[in-house]
Amino acid sequence: MLQLISDRTSASVAERDDTTPQLYFQRCRWCGTAMYQRLLCTGCGSTDLEAERSAGEGVLCVHRNVTAGADRWPVRMAEGFVVRCRVLGTRDAVRPGVRVRLAGEAEAGAEPVVEPCDIPEPPPWSY
């Protein structure tokens, strides 16, 4: 079981006893900006950050760095922060704009793992 390692400067993914994955992020107490694993607020520069639990849902953003690996995508979470995640799914199901939900994490300190919420059906025709 993963342990939550969270203080005012770090956030991570943790799992509860029922193995439901959780993603923790930081929110600035001064301006309310949400961010993932930062030392300073990206909005105002404050160090007064508190850890919050994410709902675990987001949307895949445009993937510009193809050399980093095809299964690593930036995900804009519902709370407003962007985190680079490993995406599970077929090539047809993984594209910008697809809604995703948290699926877990391989080990402590690794990138969060997400999966598509609504997997599209394959076309009725084949090659």
List the helices and strands and how they pair.
Blueprint: E1 13-15, E2 21-28, E3 34-35, E4 49-53, E5 57-60, E6 72-77, E7 82-87, E8 99-105, E9 112-116
Parallel strand pairs: 7-9
Antiparallel strand pairs: 1-2, 2-3, 2-4, 5-6, 5-8, 6-7, 8-9
What does this structure look like?
The protein is mostly beta strands and 127 residues long. It has a single domain (13-116), classed as OB fold (Dihydrolipoamide Acetyltransferase, E2P) (Beta Barrel). Helix content is 0%, strand content 36%. It has no helices and 9 strands. It has strands spanning 13-15, 21-28, 34-35, 49-53, 57-60, 72-77, 82-87, 99-105, 112-116. The strands form 2 sheets. The protein has a 5-stranded mixed β-barrel. Strands 1, 2, 3 and 4 form a 4-stranded antiparallel beta sheet that branches. Strand 1 (13-15) and strand 2 form a beta hairpin. Mean pLDDT is 78; it is low at 1-11. This is Zn-ribbon domain-containing OB-fold protein. It holds the Pfam family zf-ChsH2. InterPro entries: ChsH2_Znr, NA-bd_OB-fold. Residues 21-50 form the ChsH2 rubredoxin-like zinc ribbon domain.
- Following the backbone from N to C, one meets helices and strands in this order, namely EEEEEEEEE
Provide the low-confidence segments as ranges. 1-11
Integer-rounded radius of gyration: 16 Å
* CATH level-two architecture: Beta Barrel
How much is the average pLDDT? 78
Helix- and strand-based class? mainly beta
Strand order of the largest sheet: 5-6-7-9-8
Helix content: under 10%
How far apart the termini lie comes to 44 Å
CATH class: Mainly Beta
